[in-house]
Amino acid sequence: MPALLQSYSSGQQLLTPRMQLSLSKRIKRIWPYFVDSRLALGIALIASMFAAATEPALPSLLKPLLDSGFKRSAESFPLWLVPVAIVGLFAIRGLANYISQYAVAHAVNHTVTRLRGHMFERVQKAAPILFTKQTNSSLTNMLVYEVQFGATTVAQLLTTSLRDMLTVVFLLAYLMWTNWQLTLFVFVLAPLVVVVVRALSKRLHRLTLQSQQAVDDLAYSVEENILAWRLVRLHNAGDTQAQRFAARDKTLRGINLKLVAASALSSPITQVMASFAVSAVVVIALWQSNEKGHTVGSFVAFVTSMLLLLAPMKRLSDLSGQFTRGMATLERAVNLIEDTAQEQGGTHQVPRSRGDLQLQDVTLQYPSAEKPALDGLTLQIAAGQSIALVGPSGAGKSSLINLLPRFLEPGSGRVALDGVPLQDWNIANLRSQFALVSQDVVLFNDSVAVNVSLGASMDEARVQDALAAANLTSFVDGLPQGIHTVIGHNGNQLSGGQRQRMAIARAIYKDAPILILDEATSALDSESERLVQSALERLMQGRTAIVIAHRLSTIERADRIAVMDAGRIVEQGTHAQLLVSGGLYARLHSLQFKS
C-alpha cells in the first residue's frame, strides 16, 4: 500500500505530454474507435444537414407573407399555404433532429462498448506496474464513467457543430442573397472570435486534466474508507478521514470553478462581439429601407436571419470547452490502451512442469525503498520438495514468492523453472503451473462452484471433492442452492475461516504442480486447521510446495526450512537441524513458544 500511495500522484502525469499534440492529431488517435460506427455517424450528419437547411426557410417565408400576405387576394395567395408551410417546416426539422440524435446514440454506445472491451482486455494483460501507477478507483472511473462521457460528448458535439456550421453557412448564403452589403458585417468579428476561443481552449484542456486527477484523488479517498471502514471506526478516525475527504473535495471544487469560469467566458465575449454586429446591421438596414425603398418583408427576413444566427454561433463558441473536456477524457482511455505496457513472455510451454525452481543471485529493490527487498538471494527448490520460508517481517518472503509467477521482476539475477528462465516461458502457461493460497483471500460475487473452479471448466464432482478436502462440505450443504449459491461481494456472506478454506479448495481444484501457501491457515480455528493441514499435506505429496508461516509449529514437517533475513537466506535445514544450530530460527522458535 505505501508504494501504491507514493506512486499514485505521479500515475496520471504520464498522460499530459499528449497535450502537445494538435487537435487534428488528437482526433486521428481516437477516430479508429469510431470507424465501425461511421454509418450511424453518416446518417446523423445527413440528418443534421437537413435540419440545418430548414433554418433559412423560416425567414424566407416571412418575406412573401409580410409583403403579400396582408394585402393578398384569394387567388394570388391561398391562406391554407401558411399553416401547411410552417407545420411542414417544423415537422421536417423535428424528424431530422430525432434521426440525428438516435444515430449519434447508436454510434456512441457501439463505440463505448468497443472501447471498454479494449480497455478491460488491456488491463487484464497489463504489466503489474500498472497497478502501482493507477488506483482501483481511477481505473474503475475510467472504464465505467469517463469513456461514456467522453464518447457521448465528442460524438454529439461533432454532429451538433456540423449542423450549426451548416446552419450558419445556409443563413449567411441567404443573407448574402438578400443583402450582401449588410452580410459583410457578419464577417468582421470572426477572426477575433477564433483568437479568443483558441486561447481559452488551451486553458480548458489543462484544467480538464487537473479536474480528472482531482476526481481520481477524491474517489480513492472514498475507496480507502469503504475498504477500511472497520479500522476507521475502531480507531475513531472518522473525523480525520472526513477532513482528508473535505480537503480533496475542496481542491476539486476550486478546479471545477476555474473550469466553469474559463468555459463560460467564451459565451459572453462572443455574444458581446455579435451584439455590435447586430446593432450595426439593424441601423444600416433601417437606413437602407428609408433611402432605397427596401420592403418591410425583406427587412424582417434579414433581421430574423441575423437573430437565428446567434443561437448556432453561441453553441459554436461554447463548443471549445465541452469538446476539450470530452477529448481529454477520451484520450485517457486511448492512452490506457496504447501506452500501457503489456506483460511479455516467451514461447516455452509444457502441459505440466516438474516443479524444479532455481533462484541465482537474485536482487529486487522497490522504487521507494532504501534497501533491496532481496539481496543476492540464491535458493534451489527440487521438484516435489516442500520448503518453508521463515523470517521476521520485511525479510523478503513475500517478495520471493511474487517473483515465481512473475508478479514482480528481479532487478538482476536468474529465476528459472525446470532450468528454463521464467522470461522464456509463455506467461499464461507459466502461471498455470502455480496454485496460490494467500492470507489476503479474494473471492468473486458468484457461486461457490465458480469461485472454486476459477479459470477452468467446472466439474461439479471435482468441486465437491475440493470442498471436502478443505473441510467445507457441511457448510456448503447447508446453503440454499449448495455449490451454486452466490457468496456475495468478496465472499461477505462467509466467515474469515470459511473464506480461507474456499481459497484452499480453489488451489486443490487447480491441481498445479507447484503450491504457494502464504499463511494459508492463518484464519482457521484449531479444529479446522487440523483438518485442512492434513488435506494440504496429502495435496503436497508429489508437488513442489513453498510455505510461508509465522506459526512455526505448522512447518515442522517441511522437507527443508529456509530462514530469511534482510533479503538473504541466512540458514537452511530441517526443523531439528536448525534448532540444534542455535541460529535465527532457533531464536524465533524459542520466542514464539515462550509467548
Number of strands: 10
Q: Report helical residue fraction.
A: 55-70%
* Biggest sheet features: 6 strands, mixed
SS element count, helices: 21
Chain-averaged pLDDT: 79
Neighbour order of strands in the largest sheet: 6-7-8-3-9-10
Name the overall outline: elongated
Helical/strand content category: alpha/beta
Question: Which stretches are poorly predicted, pLDDT < 50 over at least 5 residues?
Answer: 1-17
Task: Calculate Rg over CA atoms.
Answer: 35 Å
Q: From the structure provided, what is the oligomeric state, counting identical versus distinct chains?
A: single chain
What percentage of amino acids are in beta strands?
5-15%
Q: What distance lies between the first and last C-alpha atoms, to the nearest angstrom?
A: 30 Å
Q: What does it look like?
A:
It is built from 21 helices and 10 strands. The protein has helices spanning 2-11, 23-30, 38-53, 57-68, 81-125, 130-133, 136-178, 180-183, 190-227, 229-234, 238-292, 296-339, 397-403, 427-431, 448-452, 460-469, 473-477, 496-510, 526-540, 575-581, 584-594; strands at 357-364, 374-381, 386-390, 412-417, 420-421, 434-437, 514-518, 544-548, 560-565, 568-573. The strands form 2 sheets. The chain has a 6-stranded mixed beta sheet with strand order 6-7-8-3-9-10, with helices on both faces. A 4-stranded antiparallel beta sheet has the order 2-1-4-5, covered by helices on one side. Helix 19 links the parallel strand 7 (514-518) and strand 8. The two termini are 30 Å apart.
